[in-house]
Structure formats: structure tokens, C-alpha cells
Amino acid sequence: MTAIQLRVQQLCVDFPGVAHFAAITPGSRQEQQKFALTDLDLTVNRGEQIAVIGPSGAGKTTLLHALAAAHKPLRGEHEFMGEQVWQLSHTARHALRRHLFLAPQTPPLPARQRVVTAVLAGRLPQWTLPQAIRNLVKPGNPLAAWQALQKFDLQHKLYARVDKLSGGERQRCGLARLLLSDASLLLVDEPLSALDPTLALQTLHSLQQEASQRQATLICSLHQVELARQHFPRIIGLRAGRIMFDSDKVSDQMIEELYRSVEGQNQDRTELMPPEQLDLSDAPRCF
User: Fold this and answer.
1) Phi and psi angles of residue 196, each rounded to the nearest 5 degrees, phi first
2) pLDDT band at 106 (very low <50, low <70, confident <90, very high)
3) What mean pLDDT do residues 45-57 have?
4) How far is it, in rounded angstroms, from Cα 140 to Cα 146?
5) Whole-prediction pTM value?
6) Do 216 and 185 touch, CB atoms closer than 8 A?
7) What's the gap between Cα 171 and its chain centre?
8) Is residue 157 within 8 Å of residue 149, measured between CB atoms?
9) What confidence tens digit (pLDDT) does each residue in 186-228 have?
10) In the sheet where 100-103 sits, what is the strand order?
11) Cβ atoms within 10 Å of 85's Cβ, excluding its own
């Protein structure tokens, strides 16, 4: 029997950074929907591969951040590896996070850092402080970084500076960092958004192969619906902060209902604020 790795029940998450927005208009959809995620129930077994799809503003990014314990819910239960995440002390929760890796759509890589150093930082949770400092001065295992980059056709950028990379290259650099982590839960936000079709398929294959080889769980948000249907055995449809379906068989009608336009919905919803406007003091170390 496959072990349950992650479970959330009746999870409600507010709009991150909502205080930075103008006052909500009375009677607007935002007033009616007070949460970015509403009453979510989700159970994930170890080793599953799940795609999260939905229209822009549905809450996909917020969901991944919530599952990574980067954003505290207003209410509900969040269990990971048998622990109630938000009942732990800060130190215990920080230690638990070494078992997950959150790959944002735009990885916050230091601009003046070399790619080799940025990729090897995927091992930070495994290192002592002296090891981490030594790696900044002299990368400890450039071959491992090269091999990880090779999976995303980026090995030729091993010693390039991060600020010299294109958007798609920065994205793949962040994913190469994921390969060097030892996490058992991989949360990946829109990994294909800046890639051409050929690179997108290669990247998706590398992520799924890595997850399978280490028996890790992969939860990946995607806008590419057909890729999700073709490559993922389980698909979650998210709309307006609610799960519309959670199924291994997704029909055209289900997709049509998920993306059917509702007047004013996307204008009134928000995703996560940019990282520089968020309080991420309690965020995962994999950032």
C-alpha cells in the first residue's frame, strides 16, 4: 500500500499581499470570494505525478506555495510526512522543509553568481554552514552541476553569470538546482512557460524521470493542457481557488467548463505578489 505523503483538509488561504492592493469594491467578486484558496481537500501519495491546470488567476501558484509551507493558511489542516506542519515549532518546520523543493516560475537566482554555484545551491539543506561558504568561493562538485544542466540542454552555460542568461535559461537553471536536491516532494510552478515546444518536452521528461528514479512526488502547474493530459496520470483542475476536478481521466467537456469565461473573474482575482513584495521570512530553504 502506497503511503500518504501529503494531505490538506478544508484549507483556506488568503490573498498574499492583499494589503498592497486598492480597497476592494463592495459587491465585487473579490468581496464575495475572500480567499485565494477555499476549502481545499487534497491527498497525495508518495511517488505520484500530478499536473495542476486552470485559468490564469485560478490560484495555482498560491497552491504550490501553500503546499510548500511558504504561506500560512487562515484555517484548515496541512499534514506532510505525518506532521501537522503549522503546529510545529519554527525550527522543526524549517527542518521538515528539507524534504521538499519549490521551483518558482521565475527562480530568484543571484544575478552576479555563476551558474555552477547557483545549481549546486540545490544541496544547501544537506550542507553545514562551512560547506556552503566554501561552495561560494570554489564550487565543490562542478561535474554534478554540469550533469544536472545537461538534462536541460544548458551544460554549456556552466560558468556563465546568471544575469547573462535568458528567461528560459534562468528557468532551466532553477530546475537543474532541483535535480541536486534530495527532496521527496517536488513542487514546480510553470516550468515550461518560457520554453519552445522541443525544450518543453525535454524538460518535462527530465522532471518526470528524476521524480520516478528517486520515487519522489511531483506536483507541477501547467498552462499546456494537452501536455498535462498526455503525460500526467492525475490532473487537478483549479478555478477561482477551488478544485473543480481531481481525476485520472479528463474529458474535453471538463476542460471547457474549467476555462469557461466568467465576467470579471480574472480581473478581480490575484496570484502571489512579486517576491520582493512578500514576507518570505518563513519560506522554504530551497529558495
Assistant:
1) -75, 165
2) confident
3) 95
4) 12
5) 0.84
6) yes
7) 12
8) yes
9) 999 999 988 889 999 999 999 999 999 999 999 999 999 999 9
10) 100-103, 185-189, 217-221, 49-53, 234-239, 242-247
11) 22
The answer to whether 101 touches 122, Cβ cutoff 8 Å, is yes
User: Distance (Å, rounded) from C-alpha 39 to C-alpha 110?
Assistant: 36
For residue 18, what pLDDT band results from cuts at 50, 70 and 90?
low
Give dist(CA 277, CA 181) in Å, integer: 27
- Half-sphere CA count of 205, side-chain side, radius 13 A: 10
For the chain, helix, strand, coil in percent to 5 are: 40, 20, 40
Counting residues of the chain whose pLDDT is more than 70, the rounded percentage is 84
List all residues 6 or more positions away from 1 whose beta carbon is below 8 Å from its beta carbon: none
**Closest alpha carbon to 114 in 144, 142, 151, 143:** 142
pLDDT number for residue 26: 40
CB within 8 Å of 209: residues ≥ 6 apart: none
Residues comprising the chain, all counted:
287
Cell numbers that stand for 187 in this block: 513542487
DSSP string, 23-36: PPPTTSHHHH---S
Residues 6+ apart with CB under 8 A from 11: 37, 39, 40, 41, 42, 66, 73, 75, 76, 77, 78
Q: Dig out the grid coordinates for 73 from the structure.
A: 493558511
SS3 218: strand
Q: Which residues pair with 45 in a beta bridge?
A: 4
Going by C-alpha positions, the residue among 51, 83, 70 that lies closest to residue 258 is 51
Whether 145 has a pLDDT exceeding 50, the answer reads yes
64 Cβ contact partners less than 8 Å away, ≥ 6 residues apart: 52, 102, 187, 188, 189, 219, 221
